[in-house]
C-alpha cells in the first residue's frame, strides 16, 4: 500500500514514523497523504484533525495477521530496538504453537483493538483479502474515494510493479520465511492452527472475526 502511494503521490507523502508519530506529534498538513497510520479511530480523533479527512482502512483476517506477525517477529523483520530482539530470542526458544499462543496473548491485541475500532466507522473499509484477489480494482476504488489523481494506466503500472511476484521474485504460495514478503496468500492460518490454538483464539478473538465478517459463528475449524 505504502509503495504504491509513494510511487504515485510521492510529493504529498508524509513519511511514516514509529508509533505513528508523523500523525500524533506533528500538525496535520492539508492535502498530505499519511500512510502506515496504525491507530485506533479514537486515538486518531484525539489528534484534532483539521477539516474533512478522507480515510481508508485496510483490515485482515486476524488469524492470518497472527501467522504473519509470528514469522515477521521470529525471522524477517528488521530489529529496531532491544525489545524486538528480546521478543525474537523468546520465540526462538519456543515451539511454533507456543510461540503463536504467546503472541496471541501478548501482542495481537494491538492489531485487534485497532481493527475493532474501525469496523463500523463511516470510512472506506478494505479487506486485505479483497485486495489480494483484485489489486488493481481495489486500488482504483481507493484512489477514487480519496480523490487522488491518476490515470488507469498509471495505477495499473504502479500496482503491478509492487506486486508480491515483482517484489519477492516468487509466485504466491512459494515461501521464504526470511523475507518480509513471505508467502503472499490468504488463509495461511489453516496450515498452523491446531485444536488448542483454535479453542484459545475463539475465546479471545472469536467475536471480532464475526464482527469483521470473517466468520458467521463460532463453529469454524482449520
Write up this protein:
The chain is mostly helical and 222 residues long. The protein has one domain: 3-Layer(aba) Sandwich (Rossmann fold). The chain has a two-stranded parallel sheet. Helix 1 packs across helix 10 and helix 9 crosses helix 10. The longest helix is centred in the C-terminal third of the chain and has 17 residues.
First and last CA, distance? 29 Å
Tally of separate domains: 1
DSSP strand tally: 2
Look at the structure and give the mean pLDDT: 92
| Computed structural class | mainly alpha
CATH topology call:
Rossmann fold
β content, as a range? Answer: under 5%
Rough outline: globular
**Count of separate DSSP helical elements:** 12
Low-confidence stretches: none
Order of helices and strands: HHHEHHHHEHHHHH
CATH class: Alpha Beta
> Major β-sheet, in short?
2 strands, parallel
Strand order of the largest sheet: 1-2
The proportion of residues forming helix, as a percent range, comes to 40-55%
Using the 3D structure, state the CATH architecture.
Answer: 3-Layer(aba) Sandwich
Amino acid at each position: 500500500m505504502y509503495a504504491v502511494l509513494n510511487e504515485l503521490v510521492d510529493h504529498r507523502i508524509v513519511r511514516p514514523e514509529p508509533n505513528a508519530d508523523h500523525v500524533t506529534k506533528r500538525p496535520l498538513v492539508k492535502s498530505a497523504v499519511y500512510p502506515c497510520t496504525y491507530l485506533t479511530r479514537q486515538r486518531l480523533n484525539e489528534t484534532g484533525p483539521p477539516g474533512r479527512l478522507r480515510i481508508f482502512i485496510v483490515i485482515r483476517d486476524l488469524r492470518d495477521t497472527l501467522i504473519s506477525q509470528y514469522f515477521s517477529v521470529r525471522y524477517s523483520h528488521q530489529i529496531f530496538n532491544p525489545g524486538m530482539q528480546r521478543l525474537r530470542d523468546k520465540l526462538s526458544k519456543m515451539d511454533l504453537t507456543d510461540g503463536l499462543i504467546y503472541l496471541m496473548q501478548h501482542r495481537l491485541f494491538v492489531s485487534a483493538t485497532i481493527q475493532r475500532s474501525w469496523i463500523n466507522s463511516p470510512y472506506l473499509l478494505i479487506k486485505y483479502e479483497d485486495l489480494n484477489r483484485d489489486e488493481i480494482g481495489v486500488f482504483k476504488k481507493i484512489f477514487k474515494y480519496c480523490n487522488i489523481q491518476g490515470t488507469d494506466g498509471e495505477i495499473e503500472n504502479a500496482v503491478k510493479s509492487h506486486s508480491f511476484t515483482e517484489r519477492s521474485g516468487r509466485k504466491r504460495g512459494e515461501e521464504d520465511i526470511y523475507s518480509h514478503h513471505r508467502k503472499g496468500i490468504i488463509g495461511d492460518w489453516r496450515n498452523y492452527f491446531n485444536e488448542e490454538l483454535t479453542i484459545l483464539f475463539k475465546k479471545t478473538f472469536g467475536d471480532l472475526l464475526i464482527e469483521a465478517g470473517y466468520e458467521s459463528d463460532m463453529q469454524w475449524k482449520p
